[in-house]
Protein 1
Amino acid sequence: MKKQITLQNKKVVYTIHKSLRARRVRLAVYCGGSVVVTMPRNLKESIVERFIEKQTEWLLAKINFFKQFQGQPIARHGRKDYLKHKDTAHLLAKEKVAYFNQFYGLKINKINVKNHKSRWGSCSRAGNLNFNYKILFLPEKQRDYVIVHELCHLKEFNHSGNFWSLVAQAFPQWRAAKKELKNSALNLY
């Protein structure tokens, strides 16, 4: 369902996606400039509008960021590309996790490589580490940051001060890598 909201005298069109699986409101801006709000089915749409208004600065910054790429071809990574690179990405992820886990000695259940659309990695409470196959195409510093970030979630399942201290033990330059990774988000699309 398409909706429109005015933020700082700019009209923003967004699509609402109601999901049975969603537990919270999620706001996403995609490379074509489309804005999608995913929300739990039972949530009132007025709450979504307030949420968008609170995210005005972030939202307008993302829209402006993607405007600079209008008219330029953006690489699309489809299933064929995923199947071509997933084994190499899996091997790389396993090697990097083994290297960085020397600093931590954490118990890892499985390492998986997936074709995520909006995340570089994730960690489950079962001890599984999941990585986007596109880490293969990241500069080494950013790739290492993603690996260490998810690895540290095995011990600290949050983003507290303890978590970031843990990340810094093996990867002290995490702040710069995180910033660079955020600015290279087009690699996900």
Note: The chain has a mean pLDDT of 88.
Protein 2
Amino acid sequence: MVKTYKSAVDLWLAIILIGTPLTIIFTGVSIGFGLHLLQWHATIGKAVGFVLFGSGLALATLIAMFSLPCRYTLREHELNIQCGILQADVPYNKIRRLELSCSVWSAPALSLNRVKIVLDDGIRLISPKDRTAFIADLQARIDQQATQ
């Protein structure tokens, strides 16, 4: 049976990931339409506003492409980790142990409350919403795979 767990999302990270591009976009609109305290020349203001607006949209697009959706799918023989356009499959027979973690290392996770998956050839860090249920479900699948 396939089961999917969504990533937990830390509020501070959501504020940064959403707030940064929005701030750039609103700054661009403000400068482009002259709604600011600085007295920009009209042509320069519109150009700067356009560049900032475009940069904010590009940043928002990149953030969305590499972070949405962020989910972990337990399939028949492997764990599928998806964070935006990036995907990885981790076979159950390669997993050696599961640990709770609060790591700041870069990972396909939107929270610092993570599960550390120790593999034969490294680790994976993920952040399912319900870490306890995820670990129990994944461990059951690992055990089932080992007995087959």
Note: Residues 42-67 form the longest helix (26 residues).
Protein 3
Amino acid sequence: METLIGTVLGIALMWAFGAVVLMIVGRLGLGLSVDGLGAAFIASAVISIVAGVIIWALGYFGISVGGPGFLGALVSLVVSAVVLLISDRFVSGMKVNGFIGALTAAIAYGVVVWLINWALGLVLRMFM
């Protein structure tokens, strides 16, 4: 039972984290816009589902996402951009400005996630 609660809590936290990151990236004006926090939460859920389906489908055909090196990073970036473009079709409060906008937003999303994780790591190290 504790494992189930931990899993559900982890999913909820990642969902909220994704929504906050989408709001930040949307405010930067780099190819992605989100109307509000509600749309960001819906978009975060849709992006997670679409990414899961795409990664599963690619794996089914023997294509791995996020392998080592530059090529792995490039494949990950393109998959992230495609996920944003597909998710744009399902979320009325989210708009992606074409493939270049999706690539830019995917890069910004990754940078914002990295910065937040880095800052949280610094804060946690201060208290441990």
Note: DSSP finds four helices and two strands in the chain.
